Amino acid sequence: MHSWTLAYEQKFYLAWPLAFWALTRWLPRWRLLATIVLTAATLGLIPVFDERFTQYFALMLGCVLALLCHERSAWRFIQPFTHPVVATMIAVAFIPVHIYIGQAVRYPHDPVLVWYALAVAVLIIAVLHTGPTQWLLTRRPLLFIGERGYAMYLIHGLAGQAVIALTPHWAPGGLKRYAIIVLMTLIFADMLYRYVELPSAALGRRFIGWLNTRNAPTSPDVAIPAMQAHQREPEHRPPPAAAVDTVR
């Protein structure tokens, strides 16, 4: 199993929420810029310390993308990429990029993956709007694979080793062996999705709901000041017609 990628991601999931909370708490207007700076810093650390920072760059780039989609002031910069015509062109251009980088990667932390992460980020922006690319990616077979994609990534190596160990007399690289590996990967990935991922997500939603209920006001007399101000009686103003007559 690809435990090395789990190690990177778990360290990221422990550190980034704390950093993002601090940015939101003390620098809310600058959190997008600060996230971009942190992402650029991980890119600059690749040649200095370790090429494994390529993985952190991809993770931080995803955070930048999420903030670009969330911040109203930043959305206008990426909205043109969501036009159906532009999105289709991006999707078509992504195919040769995917093929080329897949052949150029020499090892899991190859810095060439930086370009692949950037290409994927642009592709994600392109499919946010309705169009041919989004229609294609939301077909049932692709949705099935997408929902189980991470589990398939974790399982396919184990499935391949198991099939090879159980079929030593088969010719290496045969279509039959590959078909069985794909089938085993799909079966076990589906089990992980149904019995691990979905229950864990449901548990997380229940926990968040419990926190919201626990922090909510317990009495209708206890209201947020902003809500109280909003509920005040509005000042008397003349109707539009009277206002027009006054101007005249």
Number of helices: 12
Q: How far from one another are the termini?
A: 79 Å
Overall strand count:
0
Taking pLDDT < 50 over at least 5 consecutive residues as the criterion, the unreliable ranges are 221-248
Order of secondary-structure elements = HHHHHHHHHHHH
Query: How does the helix and strand content classify structurally?
Result: mainly alpha
Walk me through what this model shows:
- The protein has twelve helices and no strands.
- The protein is an all-alpha fold.
- Helix 9 packs antiparallel against helix 10.
Structure described in brief:
This protein is mainly alpha-helical. It has helices at residues 3-26, 31-45, 53-70, 72-78, 84-104, 113-126, 132-137, 140-147, 149-166, 175-215, 225-230, 240-247.
Key terms:
single chain, disordered C terminus, mainly alpha, 248 residues, 12 helices
Task: Give the helices and strands, then pairings.
Layout lengths: L2 H24 L4 H15 L7 H18 L1 H7 L5 H21 L8 H14 L5 H6 L2 H8 L1 H18 L8 H41 L9 H6 L9 H8 L1
